[in-house]
Design a protein that fits this description.
- This protein is α/β, with parallel strands linked by helices and 131 residues long.
- A 5-stranded parallel β-sheet has the order 2-1-3-4-5, sandwiched between helices.
- The protein starts with 12 loop residues before the first strand and ends with a helix.
């Protein structure tokens, strides 16, 4: 993919929450190629700690099917906290049918794996610039 077609995420800090190492690295590599600074967590509990400690985080991309609490539990905890309530959270999963109620859970967007990275980058950009 030519570099000129990558979404411009320069200056954004994005938290990637993904328990699968290969998937997490693929997301991180793509987002960094778009200019984003990426913080990684392998579960929702660790992700909440990163959000609390790093107010520079402007968006979250989270897997839904994770051990120790799924992405729905994670986003509900994000939305319950006044300082995190408006943080854009994007869900990704290979188990779409299991999470058919994702809009009610509080996610801003949803991508079914395998995701199209360019579309994810554009969605992050649009969600961050709208708020």
């Amino acid at each position: 993919m030519p570099m000129s077609t990558l979404p411009d995420l320069a200056g954004l800090t994005v938290l990637v929450v993904e328990d699968d190492y290969d998937s997490r690295e693929a997301l991180t590599t793509f987002l960094e190629a778009c200019g984003a600074h990426v913080v990684e967590a392998s579960n929702g509990q660790g992700a909440l700690a990163y959000i609390d400690a790093n107010p520079a985080i402007k968006a979250v991309v989270t897997d839904l099917a994770m051990p120790h609490g799924d992405g729905v539990m994670f986003v509900k905890k994000v939305r319950a906290h006044p300082r995190r309530r408006s943080l854009p959270v994007i869900a990704i999963t290979a188990f779409y049918e299991r999470f058919a109620d994702w809009p009610q859970a509080g996610f801003d967007a949803f991508f079914k794996k395998p995701i199209k990275f360019e579309e994810l980058g554009e969605k992050i950009r649009s969600l961050v610039t709208r708020g």
